[in-house]
Amino acid sequence: MLPIKTPRLQLFPLTLTHLRALVQSRQQLEQMLGLAPSKFELNADPGFLQEFEVAISEYVLPKVEANPEEYAWYTHWLIIHEQLNLTVGGIGVAGKPTTKGETMLGYFIDRKFEGQGIATEAVQGLLSWLFRHPDVTSVIADTLVQHVASQRVLQKNGFKQDGETEEGLRWRLTR
């Protein structure tokens, strides 16, 4: 079942070994996985990548280490363009579903691949995996108000706006 394959993509959940390589450098991880080197650029606040690195080290790594049998729920997943053999983004959820059956989704795409439907396809692929688990009843995602493209990705995947957050909008897809 893992990795997840879609028409153009592979969603690859990083193991503890892969995460440790990512902490060292993206290039080291890509080399380990036999991927073409990416010159990853985000169309985001420069602080986003710093927050991502902190999240990998302080949340993802410890959670994956503590939950080796269920690591896919806690890890970072690479979005790999199969034809190019290249990392074009990342996706993941914030853990196993809560007692309410909710989990939170996040994703990002290399700016060079925006507008090509890659995020929509990746979200669709991960949602398919998530909803195979009977404990998942809804998936939540937050976007900044100005990130209209990310909002469209969610809308194309059936999400409905479900309120506001401190920094933007909350979206929900219910089974």
Low-confidence stretches: none
Largest sheet: 8 strands, mixed
Topology as H/E string? EEHHHEEEHEHEE
Rounded to an integer in angstroms, the radius of gyration calculated over CA atoms is 15 Å
Which bin fits the share of residues in helices?
25-40%
State the separation between the terminal residues, measured CA to CA. 21 Å
User: How many β-strand stretches?
Assistant: 8
**Can you tell me the CATH architecture?**
3-Layer(aba) Sandwich
In the CATH scheme, the class would be Alpha Beta
**Order of strands across the main sheet:** 1-2-3-4-5-6-8-7
User: Could you report the average pLDDT, rounded to the nearest whole number?
Assistant: 94
Q: Estimate the global geometry from the Cα principal axes.
A: globular
Classification by helices and strands: alpha+beta
Overview of the molecule:
The protein is α+β, with helices and mostly antiparallel strands and 175 residues long. The chain has a single domain (4-174), classed as Gcn5-related N-acetyltransferase (GNAT) (Aminopeptidase), CATH 3.40.630. 33% of the residues lie in helices and 27% in strands. It is built from five helices and eight strands; from the N terminus they run ββαααβββαβαββ. Strands 1-2-3-4-5-6-8-7 form an eight-stranded mixed beta sheet, with helices on one face. A hairpin with a 3-residue loop joins β7 (160-164) and β8. α1 (16-24) packs across α2 (26-32) and α1 (16-24) packs antiparallel against α3. The chain is globular and about 40 Å long. The two termini are 21 Å apart.
